[in-house]
Design a protein that fits this description.
- The complex is a heterodimer of chains A (141) and B (254).
- Chain A is of the alpha+beta class and 141 residues long.
- In chain A, 26% of the residues lie in helices and 32% in strands.
- Chain A has 3 helices and 7 strands.
- In chain A, strand 6 and strand 7 form a beta hairpin.
- The longest helix of chain A is centred in the N-terminal third of the chain and has 14 residues.
- In chain A, 26% of the residues are buried.
- In chain B, a hairpin with a 6-residue loop joins strand 6 and strand 7.
- Chain B has 4 helices and 11 strands, in the order ββααββββββαββαβ.
- In chain B, strands 4, 6, 7, 9 and 10 form a 5-stranded antiparallel beta sheet that branches.
- The chains are: A alpha+beta (141), B alpha+beta (254).
């Protein structure tokens, strides 16, 4: 199968689409890291309004970087992003009584707002600021 | 779809929503935005009409000013953003809203559509405080009278003694020369507050234009006020600047 694939790839070496295809395919074969193997960090999630078919009522922006927090908060917490003192205590308690106290979680530590310009049902246009919409930083709590 | 960083240099699609998932996801995002359902405005283009144009200018000014995504320390929209060299619209507001004139839909206003205005405040709840509201009318140069002064008077229409009677109460006025060209801005904060707290009292607005030298009324079109027959980007509209109370941001249990 590998030989067949190499032959196919060399035959379509100049074809961008095919190159893209084989690249993606190769990536899929690469074993992925098991989930939550990385330390707590802020990760990008782009929310595109056009993908939702909302472009007829949301005038601006086209989309926004929503972000989210993901990752592990394991002991020692020094290596993790923005670990709070509470998280350190929580970890110790969790280590002592793992079934009673949960381990600290990776969550937003700072949030920002997002303004959206949209039409309502009456053709009025609304410019609204939504507080606490954007994750600015993550940390272990 | 759901896209993830592939750990190298690209984003790849890892999952695709079914129709039901899409609807649920849309509902989640609408809830996040504080909306009950998805608005469906048909046929209005951002660039054609005066109100969306104004709002887009305002939005762009705010974004270029760095106010679009803040760090949580900035309490509201930035102040002192000037649009079209004449207004300072943001006033520390949480919500800024433009209103389209619906006079043609109101029975008692329909006859004099170029003199009357109706702005639908039914979506505004009493929890929102009106920081400021203004009516914006576009005026072309008048064909005659040149530098003579005129007073543009805006009245709030109120219910009279019986259901068929109406009375008008002065709301705002502006003295303008006949050869002036551009947007006229009238302060309607009082009317907007009134309509917010008591929506049933909203019976619209009435406009009079008085030739001050002769103390007589003239027609808006002769004075150059752009009415319903004028271009879309010069149509009158109202802008409201609202401050929300903190309770509004608390999500309700579904």
């Amino acid at each position: 199968a590998a030989v067949r694939r190499r032959m196919k790839e060399s035959a379509y070496a100049n074809d961008d689409e095919e190159e893209q295809y084989s690249y993606t395919k190769a990536l899929r074969r690469t074993p992925r890291r098991a989930p939550r193997q990385w330390p707590c960090q802020r990760r990008t999630l782009y929310m595109k309004f056009r993908d939702l078919g909302w472009q007829n009522w949301i005038i601006a922006p086209d989309g926004f970087k929503a972000f989210y927090c993901d990752g592990e908060c394991s002991f020692p917490l020094g290596a993790h992003m923005n670990a709070t003192n509470h998280a350190i205590i929580q970890t110790l308690v969790h280590l002592m009584t793992p079934y009673k106290a949960p381990s600290p979680g990776c969550a937003p530590t700072k949030l920002g707002s997002q303004s959206v310009l949209y039409f309502d049902h009456n053709y009025n246009v609304v410019l609204k600021r939504f507080p606490d919409m954007i994750v600015k930083s993550c940390g272990c709590h | 779809g759901v896209y993830r960083d592939n750990g190298v240099d690209r984003t790849e699609r890892t999952a695709e929503f079914s129709g039901r998932d899409k609807r649920e996801m849309q509902h989640e995002i609408l809830t996040l935005l504080g909306l009950h359902h998805r608005p469906k405005p048909a046929g209005h283009s951002t660039t054609d009409y005066s109100a969306p144009r104004f709002m887009l200018n305002l939005y762009n000014s705010i974004t270029s000013d760095g106010g679009i995504v803040d760090d949580g320390n900035r309490p509201q929209f930035p102040r002192n953003v000037t649009i079209e060299n004449e207004i300072e619209p943001t006033e520390g507001s949480d919500v800024i809203m433009s209103f389209v004139n619906h006079a043609k839909k109101i029975k008692h206003l329909r006859r004099q559509r170029d003199r009357t205005f109706y702005f639908d405040f039914s979506e505004i709840t009493p929890k929102e405080t009106v920081a400021r509201a203004e009516l914006r009318l576009y005026k072309e140069k008048a064909g005659k009278w040149k530098k003579h002064k005129f007073q543009v008077q805006i009245y709030m229409i109120q219910q009279g003694d019986n259901p068929e009677n109406y009375q008008i109460v002065t709301e705002s006025n502006l003295t303008v020369r006949a050869n002036y060209q551009g947007w006229l801005t009238f302060n309607l904060t009082n009317a907007a507050s009134h309509w917010t707290y008591s929506p049933t009292t909203n019976m619209g607005l009435f406009m009079k234009i008085i030739f001050l030298k002769k103390n007589r009324d003239v027609k808006p079109e002769k004075f150059g006020i752009v009415g319903r027959k004028g271009p879309e980007y010069k149509q009158p509209f109202m802008v409201g600047y609202f401050r929300s109370t903190p309770e509004l941001h608390v999500r309700k249990t579904r």
